[in-house]
């Protein structure tokens, strides 16, 4: 809260914008990493590696789209002049991303364990 005239809903800094940019960077890194992973895995695993890469890239696109929606919702909730703004977004997006990273890590570990010879 800012110390203005008491009518400010939140600090007028750029916290929401920085968070949105961080989500966009995360999504773009997920897309790029998935496509590079598909290219690396394709010669040894065939369509399975390509499928995992495409699945990761689609997840990255989902995160990118949801981050935009999340930004607009949060910014709108914090900048309205109502006394009780709508609820802020939950942590579902973070949970989905964490689960995807966990699955990718397990798949990478299995790949290395099975092909280290």
From TrEMBL:
Protein's cellular compartments: Endomembrane system
Transmembrane feature ranges: 47-69, 90-114
Membrane topology note: Multi-pass membrane protein
InterPro entries: DUF202 (IPR003807)
Keywords, ordered alphabetically: Membrane, Transmembrane, Transmembrane helix
Domain DUF202, residue spans: 11-74
Domain of life: Bacteria
Gene Ontology terms: cellular component: endomembrane system
Annotated protein name in UniProt: DUF202 domain-containing protein
Source species of the chain: Subtercola boreus
């Amino acid at each position: 809260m800012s110390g203005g005239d008491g009518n400010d809903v939140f600090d007028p800094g750029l916290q929401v914008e920085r968070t949105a940019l961080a989500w966009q960077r995360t999504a773009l890194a997920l897309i790029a990493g998935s496509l590079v992973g598909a290219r690396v895995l394709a010669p040894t695993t065939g369509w399975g590696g390509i499928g995992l890469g495409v699945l990761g890239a689609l997840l990255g696109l989902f995160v990118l789209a949801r981050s935009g929606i999340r930004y607009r919702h949060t910014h709108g909730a914090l900048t309205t002049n109502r006394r009780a703004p709508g609820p802020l977004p939950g942590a579902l997006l973070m949970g989905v991303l964490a689960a995807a990273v966990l699955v990718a890590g397990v798949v990478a570990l299995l790949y290395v364990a099975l092909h280290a010879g």
